[in-house]
Structures are given as C-alpha cells and as structure tokens.
Design goal:
The structure is a homodimer of 348-residue chains.
Chain A: H1 6-11, H2 32-40, H3 43-48, H4 50-63, E1 69-70, H5 77-81, E2 87-89, E3 93-95, H6 114-117, H7 121-132, E4 138-143, H8 145-154, H9 162-170, H10 172-196, E5 200-205, H11 213-231, E6 237-241, H12 248-251, E7 258-260, H13 267-274, E8 279-284, H14 293-307, E9 312-316, H15 326-338, H16 341-345
Parallel strand pairs in A: 1-4, 4-5, 5-6, 6-7, 7-8, 8-9
Antiparallel strand pairs in A: 2-3
C-alpha cells in the first residue's frame, strides 16, 4: 500500500482534496546533494548502480516533498538498448558518434537486445522502490519514438534537428522502420520498468513541437499510441509532447491517463480542446522558479486556479532549470500542497 | 513604380489573382553564389558594403523569382547600435562577449548612437534599391525587443535562453528598461530603413515562443506594439512571433498589416482566431524543401489551399535550411506563382 497515493488517484480520475505535485528533472542539477554525486560518478554509473539510482531518485521526495518520484535515468537508454553508443559529455549534452543516416544503418540495430542491454534497470528500480518504502508512487518513463529518432539521426542535441527532419523528408520509409524499432524496444523497456515496480509511466515527446501537425500525425502520434496501448492496462500513462499544442485533440484519444502541457499552452485552451475530464499535467514556466519565493507562490497558485477543480497534476512546463534554488522548488511544491479545492469551491 | 507590387497590394488588403511569395533567409546559405561571397568577406562586410549587400539581397529575385526582396542584414545590428560588441563566428552563431546581466550594465548602452552606428545602412539600402530596379518591393526588418534582449543578456544563441529569462524573473525593472532602449533604437533604425527605401518592414520575434502568455504580454507584446505604431503610417508592418501561437489574438490588435506563422500553427486555427480579413504569412515547414520537387509542389499547394482565397503571403514557417537545393526553393516559389485563386473559386 502506497501511503500517499494522491498522484495515482488523480490519474484514475478520482476526486481529491488538492492536486498532486511533482516536477520534471526534480532529481537533478539544482540539488546540491545530486551535484556531489555527479562529481564522483559518471552519468551512466548514476543510472545503473542501484544504490546511486535509488539515492538520486528519492532525493526530491525527502528534500522537496513531491507526491511522486520519477526514476533517475535518460531517454537515450533506448538508443543504447538498440546497440548505439551514447556518450554523455559534461557541459556538451549527449553525443552519438555513429548516427543513423541511411536505411542500411538500421542493420546495426537489434530490438532483441533490449532486455539484455537494459538488464541493470530491474535491480535499479527495485532499489529505488525499496528506498521510497511505499511513501509515494514511482514514475517510470521512455522518450517518444520521434524524439529518440531525433537524437539517433542527428547524433547530438540541436535546436531544429534539421538532419533528423531531412531523414524523414528524404527517406520516409527508413524513418518509419526506425520509429517502429524504437517503439518495439521502448515497449519492452516499459514492461520491464512496470514489472520491477513502476506505478505509472510518462512518455516524453520532447521534440514533438518541432513537427507540423501533418508530420506529427505521421511520425510521432501513431508510435505514441502503440506505446500507450501496450501498457495502459497495467499502469496509468502520461503523455507529454512539448510544444505540440496543435495535437492535443489527437493525443487525447490515444489511451493516455493524462496529458502534459508546456507553459505556452493556456489551461483554458487545453480544457476547451480536451474537455473537463482529461487529467492535465503542468505547466508553470520553469523560469518562474528563478524569482523570489513570494512570486513563485503567487504564480503557482494562479496557474493551479486556471486549471480549475480537479483533473490536474501540478508540474512545471518542462524540466527545472539547474540554477533554481531548492527553496524556490519547495515554495512551488508547498503551494500545491496547501491548495484546497474545497476552499476554491467555497469561493475563498 | 514597382513593376511587381503583388506583395504590397496583398498587404493593403487588395484582391489579387494569386498569393505573393518570398521566404525567410531567401538571401543566404542555400545559394551557391552566396557561399562564394561568404568565403571571401566577413559577415559584417557583407552587411555593410553597399555592393555586397545589394548583390546578396537581389540574388533570390534573380535566381528563384520571389515577389519581394528582404534586406541582407541581421537582427543583432541593434545590439551594435546600442554599443555592444557582436561577433559572428563561423559555425558557432553570434557571440556577445560582454552581455548585460545587471541594471548598471545598461549605463554602457546609448540609444543616441543608433544613427551613427548604423549609418552604413542608408547607402547599403540605396544600393539594394538600385539593384532591384523597381522589379519587386524591398522588405526592411528588425528583431523584436524581447528577442534582442535574449541575445544581449545570454551573450549567445541558446535553446532556452534561461539566463535571459532569469534576468526577467529576478530584475524585471532592469528588463523593462533594456526593452525600452532596444525599442527606441529599433524605431530609429526602422525609420532609417524606410527613409532609404524599404517598402515594408518585418519584425522578427524569433524567441517569443519561449515565453508563457503572461510573460509574452509583459515582455514582448507592448514593445512590438510600440514599434508597429511608430512606422505603420509609413509602410506596412509584418509581425512574425515564432512559436507564439497563443498570442495571435493580441498580436492581431497591435497595428500590423500581416502576421507571420510558423509551421506548427494550422491556418484554420489562425483564421479562427484572427478572422478572415487578417493577412497571414507562412507557413510551410522548411524541412519540406528537403524532399523531392514533386513533394515540395504538392505540400506547398496543400498549404496555400488551407489559407483559402486571399489575405495570404506564401512563405516558410521559419528560415530556409542551408542544405536546401535551389531547385526545391524554385519549386516552392513556382507553385505559389502558378496558383490561381480564380481556379480555386471555380472548384478546380
């Protein structure tokens, strides 16, 4: 039995007294204790060594008081699962030295390796669950196939991912083959995470907003749908497609329990497109957490007010910024925890 | 008298037989003749030497057949006008070695220097006009104050401009002072461009889409409005706020003759928000121009169809990508030029 199951109850559509709160990258660079571990261990050691993954994942539960933990890992583990080398270089972001550029580059990828390559995840997640000790639920995650394709073709981070888009424009069949391989591997990995104890999963389509609506419907949506359908009978699925406001109506039909919103999408717009019963997650601009605590509290409350009573998970619109003060993150979390739907209903 | 004034007539709301076409970065890196000049002269030489600015600006008129030319320059000239050093390093993007971080950094900026620092623009624009020889109109431009602030505070390009947003979060009054200085300098520069012969101007809010609606209304919209109002009695003003779909309703009220759209904003959405009488500009995904000519033609026609009859300027949703083939750019332009509103009306 999870002691604080507010997050899961909200995902199931139950009535709650306040919205649950967690935030993207909550186990990360704004936490001094994380930076201490970062200085000692490589990125993939932090992901793979059960004690480290557990310590990092639980930090924001202990230190900031969030209502859910999210596994410390990275979306690029799927590129590794398929057989690609991924380097995490300090201050440079991810680098894949042998990117996919042509159809025959897919010959080097193997979906069947998924369980073996990601075998470390099972003991890591078990250690995380043990450290959480049933206080809050654990969120597992995967990147979306489109977002993985971006990195696997571009070979690194990018503003526009124009090589990835060139690949889709010039070799659409190869792109779809790659997307299907990523999808198949991701579904296997999601099932591993759930078997090891993940209580919910989030799919991150971080670069969905780089696509036109036509291309989103071709290159992202069908694969997100496959992933959601593959696991949504087992655990709730949250889909966060950053920048893809134009696809909310379609995303609302793919079997997700909640949809994440970035800070450019007004709650009123999302409600008008998705209806009042869709659980929405978000969406404070992470920059607000760089202001003073009072501003953080005022803006967080204003944001929650806009989503109305219920069907809302408080979160940022994207990952917390590294220069955020822990106190500001606490002010954000505390504002959500002190919010009372009943008081709102009484007009207070 | 401008021989092909289709672009200006569309901006004035007149009925035309087809939509005019030009595209962002049309005088740039996808043109082999531009690359030849790029190899010989520094970026700011290309901007400042009248013969070079004229040759580059006119290239797409001669080689691709666009209905309007846009001055070859850069939005960062306003940072220079105010007294900041701007370096354009090959393959690295812009770099401002002494960025603004605190209120007293503004002491080094001086709006009064604008005309002197940008004095080269007048002979450059006159040379451009002479080279165009009244074939098509010339578009002048400025960045938006918010977008300039992004570079002037961050000191370089960025995905998130988190230092710029931190500046706004922590020192909002300093941010507003800086935005006003940029606005004042930009208005002076726009007036110089118009006096020298610019027939229309475009305001580029390239990073408006990084802002929440609340912040856009605070840190971008009022300054765009000042700029539009300062010159819209003289020439038509196009406002392009990339990613700021959420602000279209407000942008539609600031006195612009047309609003630019990126490729994530469906024509149907923009029409529903702005009404049928607003001239909209855009919005093909530049990645489409990486596909074969036939796909370019099909997708361009589909895009024009979606905007309906009239009140539309054909453009890309952002700058043309460097790896674009000139033939693909021509296919885009020719599709617009062969489009017939009358045929659409007859149901062909």
């Amino acid at each position: 039995m999870i002691q604080n199951d507010l997050f899961l109850r909200m995902l199931k559509g139950e009535s709650t007294h306040r919205p649950p709160v967690w935030f993207m990258r909550q186990a990360g660079r704004y936490l001094p204790d994380y930076m201490t571990l970062k200085a000692k261990y490589s990125f993939f050691d932090r992901v793979r060594i059960p004690e480290l993954a557990a310590e990092i994942t639980v930090m924001p539960v202990d230190q900031v008081g969030v209502d859910a933990a999210i596994l410390f890992s990275d979306i690029l583990v799927i590129a590794q699962a398929l057989g690609m080398e991924v380097r995490m270089e300090e201050g440079k972001g991810p680098m894949l030295p042998n990117p996919i550029r042509y159809l025959n580059d897919l010959d080097h990828l193997d979906v069947e390796r998924t369980e073996e390559e990601l075998a470390y995840a099972t003991p890591a997640i078990r250690a995380v669950k043990s450290a959480i000790a049933d206080r809050v639920p654990l969120i597992g995650f995967c990147g979306s196939p489109w977002t993985l394709l971006c990195y696997m073709v571009e070979g690194k981070g990018s503003k526009e991912f124009s090589l990835a888009k060139e690949f889709c424009a010039r070799q659409p069949e190869a792109a779809h083959q790659l997307l299907q391989m990523i999808t198949d591997s991701s579904i296997r990995y999601l099932k591993m995470q759930i078997a090891a104890g993940a209580d919910a999963v989030q799919l991150f389509d971080s670069w969905g907003g780089l696509l036109s609506p036509d291309w989103f419907n071709q290159f992202s949506l069908p694969y997100l749908k496959q992933m959601a359908h593959a696991v949504n009978q087992e655990v709730p699925v949250i889909v966060f497609a950053k920048g893809a406001w134009f696809a909310l109506e379609e995303l609302n039909k793919i079997g997700a329990s909640a949809l994440g919103l970035d800070w450019t999408t007004p709650a009123s717009y999302a409600r008008s497109v998705c209806g009042p019963n869709t659980v929405l997650q978000g969406n404070l601009d992470p920059s607000i957490l760089l202001a003073d605590r009072k501003t953080v509290a005022v803006e967080t409350k204003k944001m929650i007010d806009r989503f109305g009573r219920g069907n809302h998970i408080v979160n940022l619109g994207h990952g917390v910024l590294p220069q955020t003060q822990v106190d500001s993150a606490k002010a954000f979390v505390e504002t959500a925890k002190n919010y009372e739907y009943a008081a709102v209903q009484r007009g207070i």
